[in-house]
Design brief:
The complex is a heteropentamer of chains A (264), B (283), C (324), D (315) and E (513). Chain A has 264 residues and is of the alpha/beta class. In chain A, 36% of the residues lie in helices and 25% in strands. Chain A has a domain of 149 residues: Rossmann fold, CATH 3.40.50. Chain E has two domains: 283 residues, D-Maltodextrin-Binding Protein, domain 2, CATH 3.40.190.10; 208 residues, Roll (Dipeptide-binding Protein, domain 3). The chains are: A alpha/beta (264), B mainly alpha (283), C alpha/beta (324), D mainly alpha (315), E alpha+beta (513). Chain E: It comes from Sinisalibacter lacisalsi.
């Protein structure tokens, strides 16, 4: 790992005030991600893992803490200041049905970031880039003029990934990116994400509740519970020799398919 | 192409809604072509031919001015369309904008929606009454007043719907792409509100007719000489036994049109995003 | 004779004027003390099968269009609605996927259990309440005396699912159908709920049909497994046999698609293509467009179930481990 | 619950204050002045000016507002310019009719709306549903005054079964039988609103029937009627209740017309007449009372809502 | 339940309700009014409705008989001095107020004084009054500065007239109308209750002392047959008609002409014509605007209009209106055809030429009308059409009555407005004679004639002067008469003693059910 992390999160806190009560969704979380590294963030529902991702993209305002992206604190930036950095910090969402605007064609969805970040100079330029990116995620150029409802779940998630990849970001936050997909499709998309990550050398914060998926895709893993990170480490360390009691309980709970023998 | 297909799918198998649609088309045609089809000048007074029974050439009879009711009814279609569309435009433009902006900009919303709350506390007709007395009786003022009355409910509805859409993942996705406020509001949120807004518009259109008729009845609506169905009813209501046709025809026209609009709205509501169904009151 | 015998079940959905079959030719049986797992991806028809057995399809535009279902020797499809209701919740009970929404939010959980009890048992309200508390205790809800008066929203997801189980078990059913009972729960809670179900089964001998998309859950819980793909049962076998053989290419593909928890695999062996939609027309074996072993025969001929080992049925022309 | 109620009541104050200001402003912007109307045709401008001064209508608007507000806070809504009696008395006189009318209307709405809505929902798509929901929509499409006019012709003039108009107080000769004066008006008023409730009950029941817990209830082996009433309707009632606040506002609006058609001495007609007479204190008073009542009813609806839906915590 | 049995049940239920309805007290007259009167204080109010009600409660010294001549009511008789300046009026003795007190000259003097100072029409007489004093317990003396012809008519006209109140109430009372608890008069019915929006109720006054003589018009014997009179506001005319037909009211006023034939043919309804017609007036602005001093232009407007179609449309049946240019109807002593050749010409072309000659260049003429009175509105619509044909640019402004009343007091807001006038027994009472009435007609010619008119007490001379005034009205056109309208009311056939026609206001003494 390189000495300078791409993202360095220090004591991140996100608290919500609802009905006079304070909910400490994220309560002092610190981690870092090196360029090209995949950090898996795993935990059960409500542990605050998604909020970490949302805070890093300013979808949620952090209550305290720092997140240095290439040395700049992105948490303290205004919406306007953060805009140029958005290109480098992108997010893949869980629900491929909901994350695409049903009223926009694929081309419209994909061209929006291109024009906002002034990557494409012309419509033609944009078209070319979109076709290229769609190809990258395994979709044909004919997809451009179609609307999200004309695609299957797996294809929609590919579109979601294309929207991220078209900006060639340095850091991708994948929030339960494959949870809503059926097993057979999930495998395809996981393979795609892994391939794209390796090919582009982007770093990734992979948020998931599924330990198997996290193990498959991550280099390092952080385990979160009740707003705090209980254990961070190399994935083999976490999965083979968990130190924390919670991590152990989590791993023990996973149903396993024992009698696995290959016959062919 | 897509629009035609979706209209077809909305009304497929709904015989009544189809009939309603056909009727509304008639009303629209009458509104557009009334000067061409009307056999008489709707304002032409004839002291001799007062209160003539329906027949030829006065299909709907004549009123106490001796004016041809059929021609007035045809011109009345104009008022129906004008008031309906006008009220819809006023309500959606003012109320819609307030609702959308309030939901999107939370702090502004606190202030604006409070104001909407205040206005909502005034029963619709009461507010319309006071406003109409305040202004002069004119077509424009009637439209504005009815539009304003429905603006409050529209603001509420749009507030709720925008709030729901604001929480949608695709809005988050747009934010992550770097989209600005205007782009999110008008490119991402608004297009998703088009069909529920159409439904809301159809209900406003329908209720505006009843509201306008009630105002006409109370003598605070359209200027009385304007040929509108509500005026026809209200001006000639003392002739209910003396010249029953003067109440039956315009009454039936109002009921049919409001009913049709409700049927159409209802059919459209069943086809929109189920999340928004509860937001639109309708009938 | 098995407790539940499903033969050639066909379920169709009304789509405009057409009836599209969504479950076709499904046969299986369940015995007392047995746990049958039905596994498959979304839209494969596993939930509809469960609802059909339970008799809950009525009024949904989906209905049974063929086959037979016998429960305790009686033909379920020939029964009147009243007779069917007498079995529902009594001899046969069901728990559902969403514990958050499966309980009526406006009634106390105790009352909802009592309602089930009083429907089939001639109990006084006081006795029913006592029984409800016992049941809550049975499903290991802490402080059942006070929890009986809680509203569903005051309970956690896991607790709600336990209440559902308590309600389902209230009349000592012979058959319990659990449709994705743990999908909405966290893994730690999932384990507790599954353990509870098996434990109760041990005590009561209830037969269970467990429906899940999670092979792991099925493998840990069930005696036998039925794998569904696009409305058909492609492979049925005792659990051990199934995972040992993985005879159907789909079963095998499914298993290989799951990222393992205890090994590092660089690339997953994913099944290519996508699950066909309901209305699609596929000649021959429905899996052939995605099948690594497909040959021309698969494109033309619909495979029939074959027994490749005792109790191990496969719908495939060229199953793994079979004679080619 | 009590704490919540108090909190809600306090929260009403700013809204109410804004509402009073609006009422006052609107009413005073209306052209026409009470002095000229009161003095009639032959009054000289000097006389009008004198009376205007006497009525305090020559003060700046905001002074008038503050004076008025101060009096309102002390329970004094002023004196009717037209009647010369306290506004509160004038309103109280109209209240009997309006409250009885509203109550009777509500009874019809619940009596017709709820059962028909339930039957309609339980028979979704069948002829009985098509007739009831179509009929409901038709009724909601009829102008109130038109309906009232024909009801009078049929039942009062034609058949002579019911009185045509007016309402002698319950304390008048006839006592409780005087309620028959309110049958036609309340039916007129109920028609569109019952229609609304029918459709609402139907729609909410259909929505609820798609919820998971209804499947649970059916899985218990409950009779369809029990599922419909105890599980579907009970839950649908929550959203139906919310509509009652809305219905109240609609009732007030339509009561203005209905009371005019039937010449009922209620608050609705009082508003219209007072507007025509430019009786500012009465207009203000009535609107204020209605607004307060509306807010109060909304509060009641919210409280009922919370009682019906245990998920809503009032803490 | 079969259809027939359902019908039977329904009919039975209906019958029950109908019977319950008939339980209404027999001795109550239910009168459906167009609205509510502002007050019953006759001295200050000129509303016809107020007088209809109040004439049962309050009485003046004189009233009118059926030929519209003043006859004594509370007065016993009068003597007038030679020079016509001193009038001594003897009062009837034994007349009681509703509070039990005897009516004496003190009450009459106090009442007259307040009327003279604050009463709506009191000024007309009191301009000429030097003093009013009691000359005995039941005698008063009025001293005039100069002979004043119409004094008796003014005293007999109760509307805005000198109703007699107890001195204790009227002393110190000002312009402000009396409050209901002070409604104490001498009439056959006493004031009982005013339920806002619901009714005004009068009850029989048992100690009433009636004037002697056969009932004739408002004069003669008055007998209160009802226990109570209830005046119920029913503003919607359709409801008034339906209500009377359904038996909910015994009497309903102000019914549209078009329903006359139908109602007359209805055995359940009696129609009662009003004897004194009312007439529409279009006032012209003499104070500001294009019409202010331009009599030629006003005459051109007058020339353009044919009054008949408007009457046909606004009123309907021929019998209910008369295209009559005289301000007082045919048969009345004040009837004169002076100037009436200009009344209804309908000469569009002539009018166009005349207007041009008068310098009219098409500037808009603001014509205000209210919808509260349908016949105003209907007439205005017809006139507007006719004027448009003659090239006038009429800007018809439709308001509600309250707005119109406010606007008409502002000279810059209007050029013409529409109103109507009730029948009056003396032309001095016609509003256009009042210089302050909106329109503000106060030319030297008018002043001269008016002075002569009021100074004379010779009936023949007065009629002659009035004809000159009427001629002047047709010449200067301060207002345009639209024709006579004979309104009618409807009553239940059960009412006895109503007679064929009403004089001015329907009264219910000598009437029973």
């Amino acid at each position: 790992m390189s000495a300078q992390p791409l993202l360095d999160v220090r004591d991140l806190k996100v608290h919500f005030r609802t009905r006079g009560r304070t909910v400490r969704a994220v309560d002092g979380v610190s981690f870092d991600i090196a360029p090209g590294e995949v950090l898996g963030l795993v935990g059960e529902s409500g542990c605050g893992k998604s909020t970490v991702g949302r805070a890093l993209t300013q979808l949620e305002r952090a209550t305290a803490g720092q997140a240095l992206f290439e040395g700049q604190d992105i948490l303290s930036m205004s919406r306007r200041q953060f805009l140029p950095l958005r290109r480098h910090i992108q997010m893949i969402f869980q629900d491929p049905y909901a994350s695409l605007n049903p009223r926009l064609t694929v081309a419209q969805t994909l061209s929006e970031p291109l024009f906002i970040h002034k990557i494409a100079r012309s419509r033609k330029d944009a078209q070319a880039r979109i076709a290229e990116t769609l190809d990258l995620v395994g979709l044909g150029p004919e997809a451009m003029t179609r609307y999200p409802h004309e695609f299957s779940g797996g294809q929609r998630q590919r579109i979601g990934i294309a929207r991220v990849m078209i900006l060639e970001p340095k850091l991708v936050i994948a929030d339960e990116a494959v949870s809503a997909l059926d097993v057979s499709i999930q495998a395809q998309v996981l393979n795609l994400i892994k391939k794209l990550q390796r090919d582009s050398g982007m770093a990734m914060l992979f948020i998931s509740h599924d330990l198997g998926v996290v193990r498959h895709i991550s280099d390092r893993v952080a385990v979160m519970s009740a707003g705090k990170i209980v254990e961070t480490g190399d994935k083999s360390a976490i999965f083979e020799a968990p130190q924390d009691a919670y991590t152990r309980r989590l791993l023990d709970s996973i149903p396993r398919i024992m009698p696995l023998k290959e016959t062919s | 192409m897509m629009a035609v297909a979706s209209i077809r799918s909305v009304f497929a198998g709904r015989t009544f809604a189809q009939i309603g649609l056909v009727w509304l088309a008639f009303v629209a045609l009458a509104a557009i072509f009334s000067p061409l089809i009307a056999p008489f000048d709707p304002y032409e007074i004839d002291p001799i031919a007062r209160l003539t029974e329906p027949g030829w050439p006065h299909l709907f009879g004549t009123d106490h001015f001796g004016r041809d009711s059929f021609s007035r009814a045809l011109y009345g279609a104009r008022m129906t369309v004008l008031i309906g569309l006008g009220a819809v435009i006023v309500a959606l433009l003012t109320g819609g904008l307030v609702g959308m902006l309030s939901a999107y900009f939370t702090r502004l919303g606190h202030v604006l929606m409070r104001g909407v709350d205040v206005l909502m506390a005034f029963p619709a007709l009461l507010m319309a009454l006071v406003l109409m007395t305040l202004l002069e009786r004119s077509v424009m003022n009637t439209i504005i007043v009815i539009g304003v009355v429905y603006a409050t409910t529209t603001a509420r509805i749009l507030f709720g719907m925008t709030l729901k859409l604001k929480g949608e993942v695709f809005v988050d996705a747009a934010v992550c792409s770097g989209a600005g406020h205007a782009s999110i509001l008008f490119r991402h949120i608004l297009p998703n509100l088009v069909s529920p807004l159409l439904v809301q518009a159809s209900f406003i259109f329908a209720f505006a007719q009843l509201q306008a008729a009630a105002l006409d009845f109370l003598g605070l609506g359209l200027p009385p000489e304007v040929p509108s169905w509500g005026n026809m009813l209200s001006e000639e209501r003392i002739y209910v036994t003396r010249a029953p046709w003067l109440l039956i025809f315009p009454g039936a026209l109002i009921i049919l049109s409001v009913f049709s609009m409700n049927l159409v709205g209802d059919a459209m509501r069943d086809s929109i995003d189920p999340r928004f169904k509860d937001d639109i009151a309708g009938v | 004779m098995a407790l539940l015998d499903v033969e050639n079940l066909e379920i169709s959905i009304r789509f405009g004027h057409e009836l599209l079959p969504v479950v076709r030719g499904v046969s299986f049986s369940v015995d007392e003390n047995e746990t049958l797992g039905i596994v498959g991806e979304s839209g494969c028809g596993k939930s509809l099968t469960a609802l059909a057995i339970m008799g809950l399809l009525e009024g949904s535009g989906v209905r049974v269009t063929g086959g037979r279902m016998r429960f305790g020797g009686r033909d379920l499809l020939a029964m009147s609605a009243d007779e069917r209701r007498h079995i529902m919740g009594n001899d046969m009970a069901m728990i559902f996927q969403e514990p958050m929404t499966s309980l009526n939010p406006v009634y106390r959980v105790g009352d909802q259990i009592i309602e089930a009890l009083q429907q089939h048992r001639n109990l006084s309200r006081r006795a029913a309440r006592r029984r409800a508390i016992e049941l809550l205790d049975l499903v290991r809800i802490p402080e059942p005396d006070s929890r009986v008066d809680s509203f569903p929203h005051q309970l956690s997801g896991g607790q709600r699912q336990r209440v559902m189980i308590a309600m389902a078990l209230s009349c000592d059913p012979k058959l319990l159908i659990a449709d994705e009972p743990t999908t909405a729960l966290d893994v730690t809670v999932q384990k507790e709920v599954l353990d509870l179900m098996l434990d109760l089964q041990k005590r009561t001998g209830t037969a269970i049909i467990l429906i899940s998309h999670d092979l792991g859950v099925i493998a840990e819980t069930c005696n036998s497994v039925a794998v569904m793909y696009w409305g058909r049962l492609v492979e049925t076998a005792p659990t051990d046999a199934l995972f040992e053989t993985l005879a159907h290419p789909y079963t095998r593909g499914l298993l290989h698609s799951i990222p393992a928890i205890d090994r590092d695999v660089d690339w997953l062996d994913a099944i290519p293509g996508r699950v066909p939609t309901i209305g699609e027309q596929i000649a021959g074996c429905p899996f052939h467009p995605r099948c690594p072993r497909a040959e021309s025969r698969c494109r033309h001929e619909v495979p029939q179930p074959r027994e490749i080992a005792p109790g191990h049925l496969v719908e495939c022309h060229f199953p793994y481990g079979g004679d080619r | 619950m009590l704490f919540y109620t108090i909190k809600r009541l306090l929260a009403l104050i700013p809204t109410l204050l804004a509402a009073t200001m609006l009422v006052f402003l609107f009413v005073h912007l209306i052209p026409g002045d009470p002095a000229s109307i009161l003095l009639g045709d032959t009054a000289t401008p000097e006389e009008v000016a004198a009376l205007t001064r006497e009525l305090g209508l020559d003060e700046p608007l905001w002074t008038q507002y503050l004076i008025w507000l101060g009096n309102v806070l002390q329970g004094d809504l002023g004196t009717s310019v037209f009647f010369g009696t306290p506004v509160l008395t004038v309103i109280a006189d109209g209240a009997e009719t309006s409250i009885l009318l509203a109550t009777m209307t509500m009874v019809w709405i619940v009596l017709f709306g709820v059962p028909i809505g339930i039957v309609s929902a339980m028979n979704k798509g069948r002829w009985i549903d098509q007739i009831t929901s179509g009929g409901a929509m038709l009724f909601a499409s009829i102008p109130t005054f038109w309906l009232g006019l024909y009801l009078i012709l049929l039942f009062a003039v034609g058949l002579g079964w019911l009185p045509s108009s007016g309402f002698p107080s319950l304390t008048d000769t006839g006592g409780v039988t005087n309620l028959r004066y309110l049958i036609l008006p309340s039916l007129t008023l109920a028609a569109p609103n019952a229609a609304l409730i029918i459709r609402l009950v139907r729609a909410s029941m259909l929505d609820v029937s798609r919820e998971d817990h209804v499947r649970t209830a059916r899985a218990k082996g409950l009779r369809p009627s029990r599922v419909a009433i105890r599980h579907i309707f009970r839950n649908a009632l929550i959203s139906v209740t919310a509509a009652f606040g809305f219905t109240f506002a609609a009732l007030v609006s339509e009561a203005v017309v209905t009371e005019t058609v039937f010449s009922l001495p209620g608050i609705g007609r009082l508003v219209v007449q007072s507007i025509l007479r430019r009786d500012y204190p009465v207009i203000q008073g009535v609107i204020l009372v209605i607004v307060v009542l509306y807010m109060f009813i909304n509060l009641l609806v919210d409280l009922a809502y919370a009682r019906l839906d245990p998920r809503i915590s009032l803490k | 339940m079969t259809i027939t049995s359902w019908l039977k049940t329904a009919t039975a239920a209906g019958a029950f309700l109908a019977i319950a309805g008939a339980a209404q007290a027999e001795g109550v007259l239910r009168y459906a009014t167009v609205g509510e009167p502002p007050t019953l204080d006759q001295q200050v109010v000129t509303s016809d409705l107020a007088t209809t009600i109040a004439q049962h409660v309050f009485e003046g010294l004189y009233t009118f008989d059926s030929s519209n001549s003043p006859v004594p009511l509370l007065a016993a008789g009068e003597t007038i001095s030679e020079d016509g300046k001193t009038i001594t009026i003897a009062l009837r003795e034994g007349v009681k107020f509703h509070n039990g007190q005897d009516m004496t000259s003190a009450d009459v003097v106090a009442s007259l004084k307040r009327w003279g100072e604050f009463g709506s029409r009191g000024g007309l007489l009191f301009e000429h009054v030097e003093s009013v004093e009691a000359t005995g317990d039941h005698e008063i003396r009025i001293t005039l500065s100069a002979p004043f012809g119409p004094w008796k008519n003014l005293m007999a006209f109760l509307n805005g007239g000198p109703a007699i109140y107890p001195a204790s109430i009227v002393e110190g009372a000002g312009k402000e109308p009396l409050s209901p608890e002070n409604y104490i008069g001498t009439g056959p019915y006493s004031f009982n209750a005013w339920e806002a929006n619901r009714y005004v109720e009068l009850v029989r006054f048992d100690d009433y002392v009636s004037p002697e003589g056969e009932a004739d018009g408002y004069g003669g014997e008055r007998v209160a047959e009802f226990d109570a009179l209830r005046f119920i506001p029913v503003p919607d005319v359709g409801t008034r008609v339906s209500g009377l037909r359904a038996g909910d009211y015994d009497y309903a006023e102000s019914i549209p002409g078009d329903l006359f034939a139908e109602l007359e043919g209805d055995p359940n309804v009696n129609t009662i014509l009003n004897g004194g017609p009312l007439f529409g007036l279009v006032f012209m602005n003499s104070s500001a605007g294009p019409l202010a001093e331009n009599y030629a232009l006003r005459r051109a407007i007058q020339q353009a209009i044919d009054k008949v179609p408007a009457l046909q449309i606004a009123i309907g049946p021929e019998g209910l209106w008369r295209s009559n240019g005289s301000f007082l109807p045919e048969g009345n002593v004040w009837y004169t055809e002076a100037g009436t050749e200009a009344f209804s010409q309908g000469d569009a072309e002539g009018a166009r030429a005349a207007a041009e000659a008068a310098g009219y260049t098409g500037e808009p003429i603001k014509f205000m009308v209210s919808t509260n009175y349908p016949f105003h509105y209907d007439t205005a619509i017809v006139y507007t059409k006719q004027l448009a044909q003659a090239g006038f640019n009429i800007d018809l402004q439709v308001y509600d009555w309250a707005t119109l009343i406010e606007k008409r007091s502002q000279p810059d807001q209007w050029d013409m407005f529409f109103t109507h006038h009730g029948f009056v027994p003396d032309p001095i009472l016609i509003s256009v004679m009042n210089d302050n009435y909106p329109g503000w007609w106060a030319t030297p010619e008018k002043a001269e004639l008016k002075a002569a008119f009021t100074a004379s007490s010779d009936p023949a001379e007065r009629v002659d002067i009035w004809s000159q005034i009427q001629e002047l009205i047709y010449e200067q056109v301060p207002t345009m008469k639209t024709g006579d309208v004979y309104t009618y009311n409807i009553a239940s056939p059960e009412l006895d003693g109503l007679g064929e026609a009403t004089l001015i206001w329907p009264h219910f003494w000598n009437v029973s059910k």
